[in-house]
């Protein structure tokens, strides 16, 4: 299992004006791995996520997902191909219910026809019912089922973060990209989130790439870690190797590793 290359980022760069936010970065992620992406503020982590999910097009280099080039494809195309993400700044539909937030994600990937929806054909209702059932299953996993009718914006912060992950999972990804999933959580919530991430990885047969500033989370859950600094990849290795890497320590000097 660990030998199938799922994501192959080949010498990818992205410039904004004169600034190389991501510079000649190569990353290989194998199926089933849980990989951390760390680096000081402004290192280029979110830009790399944006390149992987079609928000930006690479200026140079190639991104292969399941051996297919995805660099520059529209975000919804990349979602359909099996890569889903969460955002550093939560992006839920605040005025929709918790359940509808998840159901919308099913719509994104479902092939069930707009024609059937408009004319309210039986297949439309069957599709709706299925989405409700599957959505509730996901909400149960994330312990949000009892809040299904609440507006997303009224959930406490930690629950909004969990709902974002549930919504990403509803698109049935192979690759899940999590941008600071523990941001703003207290230590207990972070601990629970760690266990949940480990569990969904197994249960949904996921490969996960995770940006996170909480080093205890990164060091505890990740198989391997990539470190960016000023757009460049400065280190990669196991958590133990990364913690001892002089270049990483230098990049974080003055910050807690
Ligand atoms: N759309 C853009 N236009 C211009 N500059 C950008 C844009 N997006 C990112 N940058 C710049 O690229 C660099 C990398 O930013 P990025 O947000 O990817 O870093 P990061 O590692 O995610 O940082 P943080 O940990 O603070 O979120 C920064 O200098 C940022 O200002």
UniProtKB/TrEMBL annotation:
<dbReference type="InterPro" id="IPR027417">
    <property type="entry name" value="P-loop_NTPase"/>
</dbReference>
<dbReference type="GO" id="GO:0015808">
    <property type="term" value="P:L-alanine transport"/>
</dbReference>
<dbReference type="Pfam" id="PF00005">
    <property type="entry name" value="ABC_tran"/>
</dbReference>
<dbReference type="GO" id="GO:1903805">
    <property type="term" value="P:L-valine import across plasma membrane"/>
</dbReference>
<dbReference type="GO" id="GO:0005524">
    <property type="term" value="F:ATP binding"/>
</dbReference>
<dbReference type="InterPro" id="IPR003593">
    <property type="entry name" value="AAA+_ATPase"/>
</dbReference>
<dbReference type="GO" id="GO:1903806">
    <property type="term" value="P:L-isoleucine import across plasma membrane"/>
</dbReference>
<dbReference type="InterPro" id="IPR051120">
    <property type="entry name" value="ABC_AA/LPS_Transport"/>
</dbReference>
<dbReference type="InterPro" id="IPR032823">
    <property type="entry name" value="BCA_ABC_TP_C"/>
</dbReference>
<dbReference type="GO" id="GO:0005886">
    <property type="term" value="C:plasma membrane"/>
</dbReference>
<protein>
    <submittedName>
        <fullName>Amino acid/amide ABC transporter ATP-binding protein 1 (HAAT family)</fullName>
    </submittedName>
</protein>
<dbReference type="Pfam" id="PF12399">
    <property type="entry name" value="BCA_ABC_TP_C"/>
</dbReference>
<feature type="domain" description="ABC transporter">
    <location>
        <begin position="7"/>
        <end position="255"/>
    </location>
</feature>
<dbReference type="GO" id="GO:0005304">
    <property type="term" value="F:L-valine transmembrane transporter activity"/>
</dbReference>
<dbReference type="GO" id="GO:0015188">
    <property type="term" value="F:L-isoleucine transmembrane transporter activity"/>
</dbReference>
<dbReference type="GO" id="GO:0016887">
    <property type="term" value="F:ATP hydrolysis activity"/>
</dbReference>
<dbReference type="GO" id="GO:0042941">
    <property type="term" value="P:D-alanine transmembrane transport"/>
</dbReference>
<dbReference type="GO" id="GO:0015192">
    <property type="term" value="F:L-phenylalanine transmembrane transporter activity"/>
</dbReference>
<keyword id="KW-0067">ATP-binding</keyword>
<keyword id="KW-0547">Nucleotide-binding</keyword>
<keyword id="KW-0813">Transport</keyword>
<dbReference type="InterPro" id="IPR003439">
    <property type="entry name" value="ABC_transporter-like_ATP-bd"/>
</dbReference>
């Amino acid at each position: 299992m660990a030998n199938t290359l799922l994501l192959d980022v080949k010498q990818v760069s992205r410039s904004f004006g004169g600034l190389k936010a991501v510079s000649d970065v190569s990353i290989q992620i194998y199926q089933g791995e849980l990989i951390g992406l760390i680096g000081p503020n402004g290192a280029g982590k979110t830009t790399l996520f944006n390149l992987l999910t079609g928000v930006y097009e690479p200026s140079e280099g190639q991104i292969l997902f399941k051996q297919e080039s995805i660099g520059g494809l529209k975000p919804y195309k990349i979602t359909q191909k099996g890569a889903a993400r969460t955002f550093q700044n939560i992006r839920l539909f605040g005025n929709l219910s918790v359940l509808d937030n998840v159901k919308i994600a099913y719509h994104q990937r479902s092939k069930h026809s707009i024609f059937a929806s408009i004319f309210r054909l039986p297949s439309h209702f069957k599709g709706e019912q299925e989405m409700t059932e599957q959505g509730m299953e996901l909400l149960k996993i994330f312990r949000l089922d009892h809040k299904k009718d609440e507006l997303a914006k009224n959930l406490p912060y930690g629950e909004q973060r969990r709902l974002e992950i549930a919504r990403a999972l509803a698109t049935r990804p192979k690759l899940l990209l999590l941008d600071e999933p523990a941001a703003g959580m207290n230590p207990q919530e972070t601990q629970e989130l760690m266990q949940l991430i480990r569990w969904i990885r197994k249960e949904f047969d996921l490969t996960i790439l995770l940006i996170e500033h909480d080093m205890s989370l990164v060091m505890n859950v990740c198989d391997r870690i990539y470190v960016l600094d000023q757009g460049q990849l400065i280190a990669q290795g196991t958590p133990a190797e990364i913690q001892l890497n002089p270049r990483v320590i230098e990049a974080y000097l003055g910050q807690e590793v």
